[in-house]
Design a protein that fits this description.
Blueprint: E1 2-6, E2 13-15, E3 27-31, E4 37-43, E5 57-61, E6 67-73, E7 78-85, E8 88-99, H1 102-105, E9 115-119, H2 120-131, E10 137-141, E11 146-150, H3 158-169, E12 171-176, E13 179-184, E14 189-193, E15 204-210, E16 215-233, E17 240-242, E18 253-258, E19 270-273, E20 279-282, E21 285-290, E22 298-302, E23 306-307, E24 311-321, E25 326-333, E26 342-351, E27 354-361, E28 364-371, E29 377-386, E30 395-396, E31 407-408, E32 416-425, E33 438-445, E34 451-466, E35 469-473, E36 477-482, E37 489-491, E38 502-505, E39 509-512, E40 523-539, H4 541-547, E41 557-564, H5 570-582, E42 587-596, E43 611-616, E44 621-636, E45 641-649, E46 659-660, E47 673-675, E48 683-684, E49 691-695, E50 699-703, E51 713-717, E52 731-735, E53 739-743, E54 748-756, E55 764-765, E56 769-774
Helix pairs in contact: 2-3
């Protein structure tokens, strides 16, 4: 066995094996999804002994080339005085080294937009390359699950990101010998069978425990709940309108603020295809001069996808055309970057010496055409408002639902309102700076894609400069208004500095800015989602029945506040509960196996994340666990003998795919329990498109947005509770048609709607459609 150390002074690796203190031989500690650690001591063996420095590279390996540890000394040695020798005072030098990722942990992660719809492996590779490209061989990083989103927080070290990504994907990472491995937990299985000739019975210690759970309540994050529409009438002076519910409003966030500084595109933000060398950066602008003449070949694409969920504003920039142009600017694409596949964008075509700008929606040009003028600037903006805040479920794993086969992860359907507008600025006319934008498209796209690529430029032959680009997550509320006899128009929600007309405040109010106040008799509709704690309670009736005995009803229940993976909705909470029930069947096992390296199971080295298949009939133990930690004590350098202590546990004993936290939950826990086999089948569709179509002093006309199911109907109530055929306390009525009238008893009136079917007991929508009217009587 050799201990080689390179002090990085140009002298290369030096064999320090003769200097190893035989009274304190090296020890290695490997932990799951954490850096491995090597502790060793050296004693000077000659007057020219070189004390290894902090940062020196350390390799401990076998003569056959197998590496047990590779990494770097993390601090100067600790000196221990041993006495006076022939050359003067003699010391023992104690060292601590950490595995190869320590070199990444010393760097600050650069700012990068949140990863969206990326595989776990892609996220890990990106974090690694953002810090030190090429420092580790990342060819051993597998893709695994697609994560809905992941924030590469610069406050976290690389190893913290790697551990969290591993938890989210039920995977383990290992940095060894200059390579990075990232693979599903349990990819390597070691058989520990007491009938094997090499089995060491005195080295095996097992600790069984009753870990049965069959009634799991998971508390998640605050989630979007009711589909709310509030209806108001302006009086010409009022600026504030009070909402009927506390809206689910994510904090506005600037995902991208690109000012095009320097002389190159920021590779953290953009990728480009530019065979004609048409794209450059200069003068604080993105310059595009030409193209190949073919659609989809000259492109500038944002590094991350855009989730078509909630509310979002894409400010493509201040565009100045220098010559007739052809292509698409500010395009969202569900797939390939081609004009015919563009969900939404601005199609630019040559028109004599100028260019025409027109909206393109689902690959088709739509709406009015703007012809550019010499010297004018055109600010292009896209806004969208989706009926679903999130477009992909979170993923949860268990021992029976490993990486790539977790629970959840389904796409969430949504309709999306798109608003495309152009602000035409004439530098010679200051009034144009505050003139309203020209709306090219304002309409709803049904069943919109969940994620899109964002291509700022798709140039067949584009000749323009773009001064800035911003991507902003808006408050998740859609505001529209209409003057008497006119069509509704979408009002921009956000900051006044961004040209917005109104904002949704923390005081549950819609606040218009003075210059955008609704006129007298102008109808205002605010569409948003209500909010509440995401909760789910799932049971395993088979387990409950099996454990019932006498006065014990068999229920083994837990309430868990889950931190990672974050359950963002009640449906996520259900899937998390199911994953926990997967491993809650009964006995949990953890243990330790101590064995000499010569008798390792299967003759293989053991790493955290490997599976340990234990078969010990004499101890009534047969289970598969995951190795959580491996301790290695070198006992004989020359003979290459080590003593291994392998710690393992199954998921019933220590849940591997979850991280929980203590929290005081103030929301009501009156959540209805459902059985595991019924999850996903307990609710009907929500009435996401329900709306009020007419208001009189005594009634309102309602279009539920969808027909009721056969044998069922639409239940209307005055408050959001009591749903079911046995409660008429707040009931307004049950209707078997999509359109119906409801009584109006006061100026301010609330109505709550849910579908129900003919089953016994009937199923209902999960969330209500909430319609609120605040009209003069």
């Amino acid at each position: 066995m050799k201990l080689q150390i390179d002090n990085l002074d140009g002298g290369g690796a030096i064999d320090y094996t003769p200097a190893v203190d035989v009274s304190q031989l090296p020890q290695i500690t490997r932990r799951l999804n954490r850096a491995a650690e090597l502790r060793f001591s050296l004693v000077a063996i000659s007057v020219d002994f070189v004390i290894p420095v902090s940062g020196a590279r350390v390799v401990l390996g076998l003569v056959n080339g197998q590496k047990l540890f590779t990494g770097y000394v993390t601090a100067p040695p600790r000196f221990e005085y041993l006495g006076w020798g022939q050359g003067g005072p003699t010391y023992r030098y104690r060292f601590v080294a950490r595995s190869d990722e320590v070199i990444l942990d010393r760097k600050r992660l650069p700012d990068h937009p949140p990863f969206v719809a990326r595989s776990a492996g892609s996220a890990l590779r990106q974090v690694t390359n953002d810090l030190l490209p090429g420092v580790l061989d990342i060819s051993g990083v597998q893709e695994l699950d697609v994560l809905p989103s992941y924030v590469p927080d610069p406050q976290k070290k690389w190893s913290e990101h790697a551990a969290l990504i591993g938890l989210l994907a039920r995977a383990s990472y290992r940095a060894l010998d200059g390579g990075l491995l990232f693979s599903p937990v349990g990819s390597v299985v070691h058989a520990l069978n007491e009938e094997d000739s090499s089995f060491c019975p005195e080295g095996l210690n097992l600790a069984p425990a009753d870990k049965a759970i069959n009634d799991v309540t998971v508390a998640g994050l605050v989630e979007p709940q009711a589909y709310v529409k509030d209806y108001f009438i302006g009086d010409g002076t009022a600026l504030k309108f009070y909402l009927s519910q506390q809206p689910f409003v994510r904090q506005s966030q600037t995902v991208l603020n690109e000012e095009y500084e320097g002389t190159n595109l920021d590779g953290e933000r953009w990728s480009k295809a530019d065979p004609a060398n048409a794209v450059s950066v200069s003068g604080g602008s993105l310059q595009v001069a030409g193209g190949t003449g073919t659609d989809g070949q000259t492109t500038v694409v944002f590094a991350e996808k855009v989730e078509i969920g909630g509310a979002f504003a894409l400010q493509h920039g201040d565009v100045l055309f220098s010559a007739p142009s052809d292509g698409v600017l500010g395009g969202l694409y569900a797939g390939a970057i081609t004009a015919g596949a563009c969900l939404a964008g601005f199609w630019v075509t040559a028109n004599g010496g100028q260019s025409d700008i027109q909206a393109v929606v689902n690959g088709v040009r739509s709406g009015p055409v703007i012809t550019t003028a010499v010297g004018h600037h055109y600010i292009l903006s896209t806004r969208f408002y989706a009926t679903s805040i999130y477009r992909k479920q979170q993923i949860f794993h268990s021992s029976t639902r490993p990486a790539g086969a977790g629970r959840g992860g389904a796409s969430i359907a949504a309709d999306v309102r798109l608003v495309l507008e152009v602000h035409d600025i004439d530098p010679g006319n200051p009034a144009s700076l505050v003139a309203p934008s020209i709306v090219l498209f304002d309409g709803v796209i049904r069943a919109a894609p969940d994620f899109c690529n964002y291509a700022l430029v798709n140039a067949a032959n584009m000749n323009c400069s773009i001064a800035f680009t911003r991507l902003i997550k808006l408050a998740d509320a859609e505001v529209r208004s209409a003057l008497p006899g006119e069509s509704y128009r979408t009002r921009l929600v956000g900051a006044l500095a961004d040209g917005a007309e109104c904002q949704v405040t923390s005081s549950e109010a819609l606040q218009f800015f003075p210059q955008s106040a609704p006129a007298a008799n102008e109808a205002v509709v605010v569409k948003y989602r209500g909010s509440g704690r995401g909760l789910a309670r799932v049971t395993n009736p088979v387990s409950i029945a099996a454990l019932a005995s006498g006065s014990d009803d068999g229920v083994r229940g837990v309430l868990l506040h889950q931190k990672e993976p974050p359950p963002r909705t009640a449906a996520d909470c259900e899937n998390a509960a199911l994953a926990l029930l997967d491993d809650g069947g009964g006995t949990g096992w953890n243990g330790e196996y101590q064995v000499w390296s010569d008798f390792l199971p299967g003759g293989q080295d053991v790493f955290p994340g490997d599976a340990m298949s234990v078969n010990a009939p004499s101890r009534e133990a047969s289970f598969q666990a995951v190795v959580r930690e491996v301790g290695i004590e070198v006992k004989d350098l020359a003979g290459e003998h080590c003593r291994y202590a392998i710690h393992f546990a199954d998921d019933a004993s220590q849940a591997l795919g979850f991280e929980f936290e203590s929290s005081q939950i103030v929301a009501s826990l009156g959540v209805t329990a459902v059985t595991g086999d019924s999850v996903g089948t307990n609710f009907l569709a929500d009435l996401t498109e329900a709306e009020i179509t007419g208001v009189t002093s005594t009634s309102v006309s309602v279009d539920a947005g969808a027909p009721p199911p056969a044998g069922g109907g639409i239940e209307a109530r005055r408050s959001d509770g009591g749903w079911g055929p046995d409660n008429d306390r707040n009931l307004i009525g049950r209707f078997t048609t999509q359109n119906f009238a409801l009584p109006r008893l006061s100026r301010v009136q609330d109505y709550f709607l849910r579908l129900f079917d003919a089953s016994m007991p009937p199923k209902y929508s999960r969330y209500s459609a909430a319609l609120h009217v605040d009209y003069p009587v």
